[in-house]
Structure formats: C-alpha cells, structure tokens
Write a sequence for this structure.
C-alpha cells in the first residue's frame, strides 16, 4: 500500500481522523482543506472552536528608516497575524511606513529605498495592495516621488499613499508634490490609487498629483476622508464650488470613489450632478447620499442611469413623518396615474453593492420607536396625542420602506451584496421581493433591525454569507456557508443583552448546520459559524465594507 492510499484510508476512518486532527493548528486545518476534495470532506464534519483576534484584513507592516530595513525577515517580524492562523501566502497587502532618518533625506537615498522595496515586493507575487505611509515634513514631501518611481511591480493593483506628519497638536495629512508624469510607470497593473486629502477643496499640489494619475489608463482615484476632522457639511458646501476636488477628478476622466462615511445631502448633490455632463457622470464609481423626502429620492435617482460604471450605492433615508405626510397626496396622485416613479438603472452591470439605512426624526425617543414594532405592544397607557403620533409615524415608516423597495426594483439583478440598517421590520414579503430583484444575492448584512419574520431568510435562494448584529432569532437557508452574529463590544453590553446574545448563539448551534465556529475580537466582535475553511476566509473579505457601514450607521 503506497503512502497516498494509506492516507486516504485514514481519512475514511472518521474516529481515527478526529483523534489525529485534535493536534492540528488552525493553519494546518486550513492547508489540509485546500489540498484536495477528500481532505475538505473529511474536515467539514469535524467540530472545532477557535478564538481569532484579527480576521478582517491580513497584512504585514514594514518600518523603514534606512535601506537596511527592507528585508524579508523584518517584514515577517511585524506580521499582523502572529497567531499563525494563516500562512504568508494568504496575505494580500503590505503596509510600509517610511520615516527616514535625517541623513537619508536625499533624492539618492530615497531612490535606493524605492529600488529595494520594489525588489522585495517582487518576491511576494501574492501581494495586491501596497500602502505607503510617509512621515515627511512639507519641505521634504517631494522626496516621496523618488521612492515611487523606482518601484517596478506587476502584481500591485491598489496603491494607498499618503504623507503623515505627526505634530504635538494633531496628525496632518498632506498630498504629495508629484510632477513627473512617468512616476507610476513601474506599476504595470495598477487599477486604483487611494489618496487622503486634508479637505474636499482642491489645491495646486492636489491638481499636479491628479494630473499625473489621470495619465494611467482606466485608473480609479479613491478619496478617503476617515481622518477628516472638519464639519461634515463642508462636503456639501464643496460641491457648489469651482475648486471641488471631486469635480476636478471627474473632469480629468478618472473614475472616482469617495469613502470615509461621506453621505451627501441630496439637495446639494442634485445641483452638483446637474452641472456635470453625461461623460462626467459615467466616471462616478461610488455614490452615497441622504434624502429626507420621497420626492427628493425620485429626483436624485434620475441621475443613476447615466452612472454606467457605478459599483457601490448607499442611501440614508431620514424619515420625518411631518414631511412624509405632506407628500401623501402627491404619492397617491402619481400612483393613480400609473406614472413611472423611478427610472430603471438595471443596465448598471458593475453595481454589486447597495447599502440602505434609515434615520428617524420624531418627538418621542428611540425606545418608543422600537416598541412600535414589537408584537402585542400596548400603547393605551400613553397620552392620546402620542398614540396619534405613533399611528402616523408607523404609517409613514411603512410608506418609506415601500418606496425603497420600489426603488430597488429598478436596480440591476447583478447586485450581490445588500446592507440594511435601522429598519423597524424585515418580513417574508420583503425578502421574497428582494430575492426576485437580486437572484444572485450572496451576502446580506442586517444591523439594528427591530422585528423580523423568523423564516424570512428562507426566501433567498443563493445566499452564502449572512452577518447580523440584531438580537433576533432567524432560520438560516441551507445555502449559507458562513454566518456571523456580531456585536459592537461585549464590555458595554448590559447583562440581559449578553444573556440574550449567548442564548441566540446556542439556538444557532442547535440547528446543527455548522460544525465549526470561531470567536472574532477585532473592531467588532462576534461568533462566526461555518463548515469549510475557505468559507471563513471568504466572509472576511466583506469585513472592511462592514466596518465602513457600521461606522456610518452607529
């Protein structure tokens, strides 16, 4: 009997295989499951529990003060998954923090750093994202270009660069003074550059940078404003000005993504979109806006069909029942005339992700709002005026929810990821419609849902990954490969909330739908249940978007 036959014989002896596997590390399990189907099947039935402190984005960090710091061993020393859950080939990102000592602040030495960094990256062909953080004072920030132009690489798809100067008062982010048009030529497959502007108003230094980037065919610029410490309204005001950074990027025919929790006011957004031509609109790759009336949603959505390269769409509906009441007669007249409410944008085949959230403006507190949708809730003890207001609020909320569903009916059926937050109910009737609209939906995230039908998820025919931060009991479809019950932080949970959370976890365990679980403690916490290791790694790819979404809707 040869070694392969002997090993497959062991695989078929489940009791023996379970005994041996007790001594496997998490990483051993993962590697075995990726080896062949027989291992995958054998491992799927074995129960396992783990604790994981970082799963959202495996990467390693390299601190560079001199060229001698750029060696593979130093990269491994600072790896961010020291627990050994995943091998080095699983990471997709390298973060380099370049803070040269005074003696190395010359063009020659910075060029040497760039060349050595390029050679190091070429030994790691699995790396797809490079994040470079420079710590250079403004008089030296031109030296950043000396590093970038010396890097030659075929695997980097995303380049995240910013200059980060630490002061005693605050951290300031500067864009680089880059004028050489050939500076990014060494990145052969570059598709996206992430920048961190200090504000949405463009300056000459930003223009030079964008002019250079615009020479790269098919490039996307992502403007990340997570470090922005000004008023959010500054972004709405910026849209009305000639020196708006977003307008400049689009006029340069560069694809634009805006991240960092920026939701534009729909009124200001409409005015800005009206001033863009159809070609400019086609370069918008992500759009997030907030509306406070149904009419505004109608008007703003008319621009969507022209955004043919849109990849991500987010809408925050501010439900003000006084405004909605005024619109009721208008809506009734439109429906009677059978006029089309929303233009179809089904042809936007790149749109894969839609985020919907609600925010309620009322005269009563959130606790009353939550109680409205609880079964058998009796409001007879409240004053008559509050009872009347609750009735009106309930009606307006249902109308807004119906409007959102009508809007989603015009979305492309290629959407694969849906995020919902602050919805008061999630019913079987809703999920049936959503499954019809999005037959290829594979990821669903529910946050702050007050009430839900227990079997509502059963309507999704191809759902693979489900993440919930709601304390509600739901039956899971058999198609689910990985499921996470998420919480913000157990430290801040009340005792009864903790008890309910762990009761829900026990309920999901009793379904016997999953054989493995791990407890994740990172920017958010929760138990992940799964059968196959590749499913665990697949769900982690959604975590960055989840963090962005929960950051917006906390």
């Amino acid at each position: 009997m040869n070694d392969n036959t002997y090993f497959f014989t062991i695989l078929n002896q489940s009791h023996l295989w379970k005994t041996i596997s007790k001594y496997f590390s998490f990483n051993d399990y993962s590697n075995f499951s990726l080896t062949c189907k027989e291992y995958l099947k054998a491992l799927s039935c074995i129960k396992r529990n783990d604790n994981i402190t970082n799963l959202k984005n495996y990467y390693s960090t390299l601190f560079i003060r001199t060229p001698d710091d750029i060696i593979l061993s130093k990269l491994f020393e600072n790896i961010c998954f020291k627990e050994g859950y995943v091998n080095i080939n699983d990471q997709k990102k390298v973060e380099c923090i370049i803070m040269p000592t005074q003696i190395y602040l010359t063009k020659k030495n910075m060029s040497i750093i760039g060349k050595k960094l390029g050679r190091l990256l070429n030994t790691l062909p699995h790396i797809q994202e490079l994040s470079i953080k420079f710590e250079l004072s403004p008089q030296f920030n031109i030296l950043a270009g000396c590093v970038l132009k010396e890097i030659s690489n075929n695997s980097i798809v995303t380049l995240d660069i910013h200059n980060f100067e630490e002061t005693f008062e605050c951290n300031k982010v500067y864009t680089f003074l880059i004028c050489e048009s050939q500076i990014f030529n060494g990145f052969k497959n570059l598709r996206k550059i992430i920048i961190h502007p200090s504000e949405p108003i463009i300056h000459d230094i930003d223009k030079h940078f964008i002019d250079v980037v615009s020479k790269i065919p098919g490039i996307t610029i992502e403007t990340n404003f997570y470090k922005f410490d000004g008023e959010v309204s500054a972004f709405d005001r910026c849209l009305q000005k000639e020196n708006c950074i977003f307008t400049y990027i689009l006029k340069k025919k560069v694809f634009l993504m805006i991240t960092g929790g920026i939701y534009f006011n729909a009124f200001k957004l409409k005015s800005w979109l009206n001033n863009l031509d159809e070609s400019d609109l086609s370069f918008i790759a992500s759009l997030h806006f907030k509306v406070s009336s149904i009419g505004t949603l109608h008007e703003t959505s008319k621009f969507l069909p022209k955004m043919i390269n849109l990849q991500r769409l987010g809408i925050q509906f501010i439900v003000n029942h006084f405004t909605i009441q005024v619109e009721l007669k208008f809506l009734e007249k439109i429906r009677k005339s059978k006029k089309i409410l929303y233009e179809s944008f089904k042809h936007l085949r790149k749109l894969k992700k839609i985020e919907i959230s609600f925010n309620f403006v009322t005269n009563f507190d959130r606790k009353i709002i939550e109680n409205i949708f609880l079964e058998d809730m009796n409001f007879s003890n409240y004053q008559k005026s509050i009872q009347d207001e609750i009735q009106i609020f309930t009606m307006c909320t249902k109308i807004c929810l119906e409007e959102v569903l009508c809007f989603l009916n015009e979305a492309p059926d290629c959407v694969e990821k849906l995020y919902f937050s602050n919805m008061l109910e999630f019913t079987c009737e809703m999920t049936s419609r959503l499954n019809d609209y999005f037959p290829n939906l594979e990821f669903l995230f529910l946050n702050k849902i007050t009430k839900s039908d227990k079997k509502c998820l059963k309507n999704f025919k191809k759902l693979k990954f489900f993440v919930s931060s709601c304390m509600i009991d739901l039956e899971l479809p058999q198609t689910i490969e990985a499921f996470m019950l998420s919480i913000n932080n157990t430290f801040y949970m009340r005792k009864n909330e903790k008890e309910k959370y762990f009761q829900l976890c026990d309920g999901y365990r009793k379904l016997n739908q999953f054989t493995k679980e791990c407890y994740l403690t990172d920017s958010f916490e929760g138990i992940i249940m799964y059968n196959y290791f590749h499913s665990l790694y697949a769900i982690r790819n959604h975590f960055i978007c989840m963090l962005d979404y929960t950051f917006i809707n906390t």
